[in-house]
Design a protein that fits this description.
Blueprint: H1 8-44, E1 49-51, E2 56-58, H2 70-76, H3 78-83
Antiparallel strand pairs: 1-2
Length: 99
């Protein structure tokens, strides 16, 4: 089915969804830039926490994170990978990618 075959109400929903997704993408990009600026400011002024009646901002020190390389584990120790495999139910959804 082509989008042009949708009724007006459904087409309006798809169109509104697209517009919101586009706006969210723009806002998230701006948010990431501002978040990086906040990290720089807090490092420059050696501020660990900034709070007022509107927000709390806490500086989180850089750290390392350990994780399991599941691809390598499955390849080198498939029996161990299978033994610890966890299955979860995932509800239906839609995947949207803005071009």
């Amino acid at each position: 089915m082509e989008l042009t075959e949708l009724n007006k109400q459904d087409l309006a929903i798809v169109t509104e969804f697209y517009e919101l997704e586009r706006q969210i993408k723009i806002v998230k990009e701006r948010q990431a830039l501002l978040r990086a600026d906040l990290v720089d400011i807090m490092e420059d002024y050696n501020v660990k926490k900034w709070e007022n009646e509107y927000f709390n901002i806490t500086y989180v020190e850089p750290t390392t994170r350990e994780s399991i390389d599941s691809s390598r584990l499955k390849k080198e120790l498939p029996d161990v990978a299978e033994k610890y495999k966890k299955t979860s139910n995932v509800k239906a959804s839609v995947r949207v990618k803005i071009k």
